[in-house]
Structure formats: structure tokens, C-alpha cells
């Protein structure tokens, strides 16, 4: 069943450009993309590049390249958070003017002394600024930060579509800094202002941001803005149940492209990582968009399982449109820095794809199955295939060649000729298959001998058999 259309839905993906597109970030982007696309809504992209020391153009490009590989298209221009710093500061000054924020002249030494005294008295170390209600006439001529006035009593309830209602006592919230002493806005302010100005209706992000929601709601409330729908999704863990890290293998989305996983398989797998729709494991993009909803997201961390990824990738390769699959193979070769296909190889691969895409879990596996059409004469047999080309086998191939020269080049005819020849040799076709694979492909594991013959054609098949027999 499709989701009801709601063009008012606006989601966003907002990574920090400090490295590659992390696999967890890729899943967050996918969930936002699916939620918006399935409802005819809008999916936006924002780069949170306020940390100038760590943000790089190269990392931004790596993230955008990762999104492009995954096929997660966004609407409108990519927004730079850093470029909007003046707007963020404007909101802080508005709250200052309305008495909802204040200038705090406390130094780091003042704050440290406050916390030390609070610890000694067994009280909360949450900083309570003496400047919260100070008379402006008492302000010193000194640097200051701008802090928001947090509610002093009651509680804040985060109504979360994944985690349920999460209640935080307001006495656990400090008067959060909005502007630093140099006048630059903090990340927490920038996020809220950007989400509001971009019209974001649903914030779908990792549950490591859950506590941030309560602090960000202070800004929404102070500005009188609508609070978005929250959906904080559990993080991804490795097979050992610990937070996904380098020790579990590749972390960057594009590393999986370079390993040869198809984008559709990656999307399918990431969608199933923490979200479910009944017992469906394999599904298309159209089905994922029609089915995806926040109530299908589990509360527990999902475990990354390479075997499941391989299984789904294999299914997507098998069911892929041949032209699209050929383009993905060419993109994979470029991303992996491998030799591009020559024109003749492209034509050969096009003919072979229907026979080689079954049971290949990755694109390198598929290319290995297609080796017979990508290689040129004379075909060099690898070590395992060479064992099938002993003196007896070469003699058999010599006798077989004339039989094939007069055969009709169709599967039924080729099967009949080979089976009759095997019977005449008082053997079974299976005994012929090894030498034929070695002669035609130089490999012991190949597609069906008949499929290879049909793709190679009469002349090339006979030439390869003659080469091997010699």
C-alpha cells in the first residue's frame, strides 16, 4: 500500500564535511529520501560546514559523490550552513532584544569555579549564570556570550516517532550558548534556524542527537516556531554488537561501490537495516518508497551483516535491466581505477549479460563470469583450468571440432551434437565440460558451455577449440 501523498513534507540530510559519506549517514539520507519521495514531498541537502578547521571541499565532494552513486537525488541547491552565519546571529539578537536571551560575561575561570563549588556542595554542576537577570547598567566593558533563557521548572517532552515520548526535566537544561564571544553562532542555533528557514517538517537523524532535541526545542519555543516531527533512529552496530567502526570493515559508502556492490542492492540493504515491512527482504525502490514509514523503524541498533548485503546485491544484479547494469559496471571500473572496457568488450558483455548476471553477488564476480567474452585469443588457461587440458582432452577437442563445424548454431543443436559425441566416446557430457570450459574461457568455473558458445559465435568458438587442441 502506498503512503498518502503529502507534498508539504520536507526532509533533509545534513552531514558535516569532515570525511567520506559514512554508511550510517548514507542510511540516514536514504530514510529521509524515502520518506519524502514516497509522499511527493521535498528532500533537501545541507552541508553543516561551520567547523572551518575540519570542513574541506574534498570531503563535501566525497559526500555528494556518495549520494550520487546511491541515487539519492535532492531538490534545490545544496545549502552551506557556514554561508548563513549572519542569519543565525540575527535570530540570536532577536531573542536578546525580546529578553529571551541574555549577555553572559562569565569567564571560563568563573564557570570552572562555579562547578567546583557545586561539586563540593553535592549540587548540580549545570552552570547557572549570575548574568541571567542582571541589569544592563551593570554590564562590564568585556567579552560576552549570548545565552538563551532555559525554562526553570517543569519538563520538556520530545515526541519522537521512533523512541516514543522522551521526557527531560527542565532543571537538567542549561542556558545554552547561542553566540560565542567572537559573535559566531553555535551549531545548535544554526541547525534550528536552518531547519526552520528551509521549511523542514520531519527531522530524521541518528539517536545520538536525541538529547539535542530538547535543547533545540528551547529555540523553537522562544521564536514561536513550529517544532518539526522528530524521528531519532538507532545507530548501526557491527556483527559483534558494538558501534560500527573500522575494525568491522569498510565505513564509507563509496568503498562499497569500489568493492562492486550495485547501488540498488546497497539501497535495499540499508533500508532493511533497522526498518522492516513485514517479512519483505528484497524490494525495489518503488516498493520502498511506497512502504517506508517511521513506525517501521525499530528501537534497537541494527547489525551490519555483509552476507545479507551480498545476498541482496546478487538478487538485484540478477534482476537488473541489462543496459543499466552495463552502465553500472562501467561506472564501477572507473571508481575502482580499473581498465575501462574496450568497444569490442562492451559489445561482447552486452551479449553475455543475460547469461552471467545470475548468481553473481558483486560486479567483480560478474566480470569474472564474463571473462570468456572479455578476453582475446589465444585464451590463457589459469592453473585450475589447465589441469583439464591434458593430452587426452586435447585429442577429444581435435575430434569434436569437425562435428561442430557443420552444426546449426542453436542451443538445441549444440546440445544434441555434444551429447552424441560424448556417447560415441563412451563418456558423459560432464566429462567434456571441463576441457571445453578451459578452451573457451581459460577458467574452470564459467557460465554454461552452450551459453558461451552462443555468445562467442561459431567462428570464435571453433578457433578457441583449435587453439586449445594444438
From TrEMBL:
It holds the Pfam family tRNA-synt_1c. It is found in: Cytoplasm. The keyword ATP-binding applies. Its EC number is 6.1.1.17. It comes from the Bacteria. Residues 8-310 form the Glutamyl/glutaminyl-tRNA synthetase class Ib catalytic domain. It catalyses: tRNA(Glu) + L-glutamate + ATP = L-glutamyl-tRNA(Glu) + AMP + diphosphate. GO terms for biological process: glutamyl-tRNA aminoacylation. Catalyzes the attachment of glutamate to tRNA(Glu) in a two-step reaction: glutamate is first activated by ATP to form Glu-AMP and then transferred to the acceptor end of tRNA(Glu). Monomer. This is Glutamate--tRNA ligase. It comes from Tateyamaria omphalii. The lineage of its organism: Bacteria, Pseudomonadati, Pseudomonadota, Alphaproteobacteria, Rhodobacterales.
Amino acid at each position: 500500500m502506498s503512503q498518502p501523498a503529502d507534498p508539504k513534507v520536507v526532509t533533509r540530510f545534513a552531514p558535516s564535511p569532515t570525511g567520506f559519506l559514512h554508511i550510517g549517514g548514507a542510511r540516514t539520507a536514504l530514510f529521509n529520501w524515502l520518506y519524502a519521495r514516497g509522499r511527493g514531498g521535498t528532500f533537501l541537502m545541507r552541508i553543516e560546514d561551520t567547523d572551518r578547521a575540519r570542513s574541506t571541499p574534498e570531503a563535501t565532494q566525497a559526500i555528494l559523490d556518495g549520494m550520487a552513486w546511491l541515487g539519492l537525488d535532492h531538490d534545490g541547491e545544496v545549502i552551506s550552513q557556514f554561508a548563513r552565519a549572519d542569519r543565525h546571529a540575527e535570530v540570536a539578537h532577536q531573542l536578546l532584544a525580546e529578553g529571551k536571551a541574555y549577555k553572559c560575561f562569565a569567564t571560563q575561570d568563573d564557570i570552572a569555579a562555579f562547578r567546583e563549588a557545586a561539586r563540593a556542595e553535592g549540587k548540580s554542576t549545570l552552570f547557572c549564570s549570575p548574568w541571567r537577570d542582571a541589569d544592563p547598567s551593570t554590564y562590564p566593558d568585556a567579552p560576552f556570550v549570548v545565552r538563551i533563557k532555559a525554562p526553570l521548572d517543569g519538563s520538556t517532552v520530545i515526541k519522537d516517532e521512533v523512541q516514543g515520548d522522551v521526557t527531560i526535566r527542565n532543571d537538567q537544561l542549561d542556558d545554552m550558548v547561542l553566540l560565542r564571544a567572537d559573535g559566531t553562532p553555535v551549531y545548535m542555533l544554526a541547525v534550528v534556524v536552518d531547519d526552520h528557514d528551509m521549511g523542514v517538517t520531519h527531522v530524521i537523524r541518528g539517536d545520538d542527537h536525541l538529547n539535542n532535541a530538547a535543547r533545540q526545542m528551547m529555540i523553537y519555543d522562544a521564536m514561536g516556531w513550529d517544532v518539526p516531527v522528530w524521528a531519532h533512529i538507532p545507530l548501526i552496530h557491527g556483527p559483534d554488537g558494538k558501534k560500527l567502526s573500522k575494525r568491522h570493515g569498510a565505513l564509507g559508502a563509496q568503498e562499497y561501490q569500489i568493492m562492486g556492490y550495485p547501488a540498488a542492492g546497497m539501497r535495499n540493504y540499508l533500508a532493511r537495516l533497522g526498518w522492516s515491512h513485514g517479512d519483505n527482504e528484497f524490494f525495489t525502490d518503488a516498493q520502498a518508497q511506497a512502504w517506508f514509514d517511521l513506525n517501521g523503524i525499530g528501537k534497537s541498533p541494527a547489525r551490519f551483516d555483509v552476507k545479507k548485503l551480498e545476498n541482496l546485491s546478487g538478487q538485484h544484479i540478477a534482476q537488473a535491466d541489462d543496459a543499466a547494469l552495463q552502465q553500472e559496471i562501467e561506472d564501477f571500473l572507473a571508481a575502482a581505477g580499473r581498465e575501462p572496457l574496450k568497444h569490442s568488450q562492451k559489445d561482447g558483455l552486452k551479449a553475455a549479460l543475460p547469461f552471467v548476471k545470475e548468481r553473481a553477488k558483486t560486479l567483480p564476480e560478474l566480470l569474472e563470469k564474463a571473462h570468456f567474452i572479455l578476453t582475446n585469443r589465444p585464451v590463457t588457461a589459469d592453473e585450475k583450468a589447465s589441469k583439464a587440458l591434458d593430452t587426452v582432452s586435447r585429442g577429444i577437442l581435435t575430434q569434436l571440432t569437425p562435428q561442430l563445424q557443420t552444426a546449426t548454431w542453436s542451443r538445441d543443436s549444440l546440445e544434441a551434437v555434444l551429447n552424441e559425441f560424448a556417447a560415441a566416446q563412451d563418456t558423459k557430457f560432464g566429462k567434456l565440460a571441463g576441457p571445453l570450459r578451459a578452451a573457451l574461457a581459460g577458467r574452470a568455473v564459467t557460465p554454461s558451455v552452450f551459453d558461451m558458445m552462443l555468445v562467442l559465435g561459431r567462428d570464435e568458438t571453433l578457433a578457441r577449440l583449435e587453439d586449445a587442441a594444438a
